[in-house]
């Protein structure tokens, strides 16, 4: 047991783990526990959280609306980078954790706390994301990572259910449906239970943000999304704040069955994990952003940026949001977005997000050059020399082989 810990700030969601952890910290460390819950767009999940935390033993709880900061400073930078982990995952949880941990450190400083704590397990990615942020922002803070604590005597969710029942701690999960979920403005994730079998199809009743494509409307929905310097700023001509825009597009996309992802991903700690995600609005925004880029970005700039997108996604996924390499990478990414201003028209239909139009005042597309009809600006014979010069090394290689 770490000596000298009198006050702890706990990252608190009100789920099974953190509900149990409040009582466990008090019993184990004989310390004061302050809970912190970040409102990142969980909606009804925050209902009754204050009463629950206090009744479980917390001395106080901070519940803070960080939705605009999350959308503006975490989601949109990743969107500008077209960051997608392993070609599929739009980083919903990965982008939320550094913001939660940052604010947790700020509250610990304000409250004069000795330590911070989280409920992430020793098998997952979130432990890394939380703790790397703690170290980056306050290297001297003590960290109580309960699943790695010698005093932690729980070995399964069943044992945690038993503890919760013993102390009459209300928890949102049941033994029959022990799915773990994490919701914010960008997505909701589902893990655990039957989902641990990668062959088992996710049951329809786990989905929250999206209709199944089969149940989506039979008529397509069209939306026009305006971008300024790589950031979405308006939908159908109506300007919105980052958080309100994401909430709005989530509803429209979810109604059309868009954004379901079922993947087996490689965790940073080395194991593979199956996750089911719903990212309705993000799926549309990523496709729309790419559409505007297609007519505004120089070819070589886009090629270089695209080569860096996987690295950006990896850094975010692995918890290095506050690393110097991420800061440097973001600076370059943002420089590539200076001309990415325009509008994408999207057709949303039964799980599909289809680009059907794009326009920009900064467009590099010229119909005069691209036309298959007669033009006055391009001499097609010029391509002969261009091809021969590019073929020279191939010709030499072929001659030498013979």
Would you write up a description of this structure?
Helix 3 packs across helix 4, helix 3 (67-80) crosses helix 7 and helix 7 packs across helix 8 (280-296). A 5-stranded parallel β-sheet has the order 3-2-1-4-5, with helices on both faces. A 5-stranded antiparallel β-sheet has the order 10-9-8-13-14. A 4-stranded antiparallel β-sheet has the order 6-7-12-11, with no helix packed on it. The chain has helices at residues 16-29, 49-56, 67-80, 92-111, 126-137, 157-166, 242-255, 280-296, 299-318, 324-336, 367-370, 382-401; strands at 7-11, 32-39, 60-65, 115-118, 142-145, 180-183, 188-191, 221-228, 231-235, 238-239, 260-266, 272-278, 342-349, 352-359. With 402 residues, it is of the alpha/beta class. The chain is 41% helix and 20% strand. The protein has 12 helices and 14 strands. The longest helix is centred in the N-terminal third of the chain and has 20 residues, at 92-111. The chain folds into 2 domains: 7-84 and 94-171, Rossmann fold (3-Layer(aba) Sandwich); 182-359, Argininosuccinate synthetase, chain A, domain 2 (Alpha-Beta Complex), CATH 3.90.1260.
